[in-house]
Every structure is written in C-alpha cells, then in structure tokens.
Design a protein that fits this description.
single chain, 218 residues, alpha+beta, Pnp Oxidase, Chain A, nine-stranded antiparallel sheet, 5 helices, 9 strands, 32% strand, globular, binds flavin mononucleotide
Length: 218
C-alpha cells in the first residue's frame, strides 16, 4: 500500500457550545435531550452506537448496534447471545457505548455493565420487528464462519417454511442487553480544538449514588 496521510482532513467544530448551566443534573435527561436534537436534525442513524466489549485475553472489540430503548435504568440493544459479543459479555460485563453525530459536532461516551434484558422484554421487541427481520434473526448463527451466501439464503428459507403458518418464535439465542451506566461523557466540539467536555460519574458508596459532574480539558 502506498504511504498516505490524512493531515488535510480537518475541519473546525463550531455548531454550538455546551455550558455547565444548560447541562441537566441527570445524565439520562441530558442524553434524551441530545438524542431528541439528533432526531430533529435528521441525523442518519442517530441511534447507531459503537459497543465495545473485552475478551478474556483483554483484547477489546467494537461494533455498531442500534439503540432500541433507553430509560433511567439504562440503554438497550438487541443481538444474538451466542455471537462473539455475547461470549465476551458472558466473560466480562464491562462495556462502553459511543455515539458520534458529526453534523452536531457531538460525541457521547457511556460506560457501565451489561445485563441481559428479561425474556419478556426481548420477545416484545422481537414481535414488533418486520417478519423478515424475525426470520433473519431466527436463521442466522451470528459471528460463525459460513461457506457462502447460499447457506444464509437456505437457512432463511428453512425458517420461512417452519413458520409458514405461524408467528416466528423469538429464538432462545436472541435478545436484549441493557447497559447500566456508571459514567457518561458529553463532548461538544468547539473552535480551536477547545472543546466542551462534561463527565458524570456515579457515586459508588451505598449512601451516595448521586452523579458528580466535572468539566474535562479537551
Ligand atoms: C448500522 C448498523 C447497525 C447494526 N445493528 C445491529 C444490532 O442492532 N444488533 C446486532 O446484533 N448487530 C448489529 N449490527 C451488526 C454488528 O455491527 C456486528 O456485525 C454483529 O453484531 C456481530 O458482532 P460480533 O461478531 O462482535 O458479535 C449493525 C451494524 C451496523 C453497521
């Protein structure tokens, strides 16, 4: 590969500012406010987020998934429990989420622990999906090596046959994870690389689980 550099690929960040005064004292509310603005601004895939997990050797792995629900307990996405990420989460529940919305010069980092959602919650979401997505979830062995595209189509057709006259069953190996956060960071790009960064850290003592807020140097 020829040597390349990307030094000229730069721009100024100047969409707006983030001040301590306008920051909500509740990081979940701050998240919803920014997500609402991302949706209003017609960001493509505003709910797409990177999820990073770590395997037993300490190697991190990142991939994009779609945020499907959020409330004051945490952030939910749906996937295959026997995928690579599912194995990593079973071994180590620590994980990090990342949203980046370039049109708003914003990044949100969220860290915490992942837990499986209840079977009921997974089923509720599964049955709300288009039938083809249900069949795809039921037929895929996510993260495993397959001989070719033909295998994917055959497995899909097989599930179509099995569920021809019935609802597609939510497979045992498919469902949600909820990330319960202990740290959030809201990053607003600013001119001259003097970005605004505010971090929320959850108190760890039994008597104090309140969120503390600090501004970080960019
Ligand atoms: C925009 C986008 C959305 C995605 N959404 C999901 C999702 O919600 N759930 C999921 O399991 N994989 C989703 N994927 C695929 C994952 O990035 C990844 O390929 C898959 O989950 C397997 O990851 P793993 O082998 O590390 O377990 C999405 C990929 C992209 C690019």
């Amino acid at each position: 590969m020829s040597n390349r550099d990307y030094h000229q690929e730069r721009r100024e960040y100047q969409y707006t500012e983030l001040t301590r005064d306008e920051l909500s004292s509740d990081p979940f509310l701050q998240f919803s406010k920014w997500m609402d603005q991302a949706i209003e601004n017609k960001i493509i895939d505003p709910t797409a987020m990177s999820v990073s997990t770590v395997d037993l050797s300490g190697q991190p792995h990142s991939r994009i998934v779609l945020l499907k629900e959020s409330d004051s307990n945490g952030f939910v996405f749906y996937t295959h429990y026997d995928s690579d990420k599912g194995q990593q989460i079973a071994d180590n529940a620590n994980a990090a989420l990342l949203f980046y919305w370039p049109q708003l010069d914003r990044q949100i980092r969220i860290e915490g622990q992942l837990e499986k959602t209840s079977k009921q919650q997974s089923e509720n979401y599964f049955h709300s999906r288009p039938r083809e997505s249900q069949l795809a979830a039921a037929s895929s062995v996510q993260s495993r090596v397959v001989p070719g595209r033909k295998t994917l189509n055959q497995n899909f057709a097989l599930k179509e046959q099995i569920f021809e006259h019935t609802d597609v069953e939510c497979p045992e190996h498919w469902g949600g994870y909820i990330l319960k956060p202990n740290r959030f960071e809201f990053w607003q790009g600013r001119p001259n690389r003097l970005h605004d960064r505010f971090v929320f850290t959850k108190g760890t003592s039994k008597n104090n689980q309140a969120w503390s807020i600090d501004r970080l140097a960019p």
